[in-house]
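Researcher: Let's do a round of design. I'm pasting the structure tokens now; please hold your answer until I've finished.
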């Protein structure tokens, strides 16, 4: 199960994130989940959650020029010092949402 979950989360090259990588990923996730989900055609549930798999399929890069799909979303969320995001697992799928600050209707 762990290997399957790692694939859905993306991967990083060394198993850990530097502060700059976490910050850049957090900024991109914030922009997507709070403001851009509908224009990126992400299927956002009424409670604000989107599938991590769908998020990782986006052809986007962080401000640090790192492709979104190369990040480990779970590690980044856990290490985000601002606690901007929530992760849940339902039916074997990982979902993420921004905790606050939406400009889109959730």
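Researcher: That's everything. Go ahead.
Model: Designed sequence:
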């Amino acid at each position: 199960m762990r290997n399957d979950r790692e694939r859905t989360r993306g991967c990083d090259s060394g198993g850990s994130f530097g502060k700059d990588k976490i910050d850049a990923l957090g900024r991109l996730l914030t922009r997507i989940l709070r403001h851009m989900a509908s224009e990126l055609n992400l299927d956002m549930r009424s409670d604000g959650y989107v599938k991590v798999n769908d998020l990782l399929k986006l052809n986007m890069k962080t401000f640090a020029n790192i492709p979104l799909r190369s990040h480990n979303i779970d590690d980044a969320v856990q290490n985000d010092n601002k606690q901007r995001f929530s992760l849940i697992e339902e039916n074997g799928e990982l979902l993420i949402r921004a905790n606050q600050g939406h400009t889109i209707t959730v």
